[in-house]
Specification:
five-stranded parallel beta sheet, Rossmann fold, three-stranded antiparallel beta sheet, single chain, alpha/beta, 45% helix, 382 residues, 12 strands, 2 domains
Length: 382
């Protein structure tokens, strides 16, 4: 039974809600009546409010009681047919779970109650995580070490880089370098540099090759056959505002399915990689341009690998978010510990990232650098 708190006086709608199976209705006519129920909000699953009310409109009630509603993980919805798209977006940014149209189906509140609550919980958790992560500043000794090592290394390896760049250009069309957005310390986003080891359309092919995802393979075996759902052009789309992005309910559910299948993406025997790409990956030559990131201060020589946006945005729980409290680096603990020892699970990788975040120091970094060189000659490509 879904416990609904309705704010408003529309008799026709109250009657429909009262006769909806699976719905237990409580009415609060206006803000005064709602205020009287403040101490009982934990008993409800949803709050639905008319927009136009006597005394204080629906968005005003939400704004005044936002912290209490969030504390009780209580989704708040407003009913109105006359909002512009920009105003809808504004309300959703503020945290209102959904804007319902006048002719909405009350039964949908019963079927989607858990969905609304999960959406709100995820939003609150992500915002809380952002507040918890403190800015990491590289210690002076580590920063000086990074600048000296990166500068000397770039000078020494410049002949090798030139030869590899020529080979990349001869084998396939496109730039010799690859730049992507990565998330480093404290969720800082920066441009991440590598030598190109894939064909130029590699990013577009991730979806069509998802069945080869090494990290998701175990989860995929446990999934039943997927239903092929299509939406008619005239169907109404439920607009949801999740962490700065508008999406429909189906898009959100698909995102959740992908999260359940594994956060990280890695293909075994990846067909997107060029011949030169296989060589520079196995020898880690493709990583060398990251020395430029080190000189810029985006990364350190040693740290946790910066993640692509689509991976980092999913690591919002306390269990895994701790890895962002350490410096981002070219090499790190999991690259050294697991290289050449077979396939590594997603949990192992994240656990090693957290372990480094808890225990990193300048001298431990030196030890990892000394272990990195022999690790480069192991077969496993990480």
């Amino acid at each position: 039974m879904i416990r609904l708190l309705y704010i408003g006086e529309r008799e026709d709608r109250l009657q429909k809600l009262q006769t909806t199976e699976g719905l237990a209705l409580t009415q609060a006519k206006n803000v005064v009546a709602f205020d009287n129920l403040e101490s009982e909000l934990h008993q409800y699953d949803l709050v639905v409010s008319e927009y136009k009310l006597r005394g204080l409109d629906g968005d005003g009630i939400y704004d005044r009681y936002k912290s209490i509603l969030r504390h009780n993980r209580l989704p708040f919805m407003i009913i109105d047919d006359h909002f512009t798209r920009s105003r809808k977006t504004g309300f959703l940014k503020e945290g209102i779970s959904e804007l319902l149209e006048e002719d909405f189906d009350p039964a949908s509140l019963v079927s989607k109650a858990d969905f609304y609550k999960e959406m709100l919980a995820n939003r609150i958790e992500r915002q809380r995580k952002k507040k918890r992560v403190t800015e990491y500043k590289i210690p002076l000794a580590k920063r000086l070490f990074d600048i000296v090592v990166a500068g000397i290394a770039l000078l020494v390896i410049s002949p090798v880089l030139i030869l590899v760049i020529i080979a990349i250009k001869l084998e396939s069309k496109g730039p010799f370098w690859y730049k992507s957005k990565r998330v480093g310390t404290g969720y800082k986003v920066f441009d991440f540099y590598k030598l190109r080891s894939m064909y130029t359309d590699a990013d577009k092919r991730i979806k069509e090759l998802s069945h080869l995802n090494q990290y998701a393979s175990e989860s995929s075996e446990n999934e039943g056959p997927k239903k092929n759902k299509t939406r008619a052009k005239d169907d109404k789309v439920t607009l949801i505002y999740k962490d700065g992005t508008e999406m429909s309910e189906e898009e959100y559910l698909e995102l959740k399915r992908q999260q359940a299948a594994g956060t990280f993406v890695k293909f075994k025997n990846d067909p997107r990689i060029t011949k030169v790409g296989h060589f520079i990956r196995n020898t880690s030559i493709d990583e060398l341009p990251q020395l430029i990131n080190v000189l810029k201060g985006d990364m350190s020589i040693v740290g946790n690998r910066p993640l692509p946006l689509y991976e980092a945005e999913q690591l919002t729980s306390d269990d895994w978010g701790e890895r962002f409290l350490a410096p981002a680096g070219i090499t790190g603990l999991w690259q050294v510990e697991k290289r050449g020892k077979g396939e590594m699970s997603e949990e192992e990788r994240k656990a090693l990232d957290n372990q480094y975040a808890k225990n990193f120091s300048f001298w431990n970094d030196i030890k990892l650098i000394l272990k990195t060189v022999p690790a480069l000659f192991q077969k496993e490509n990480v």
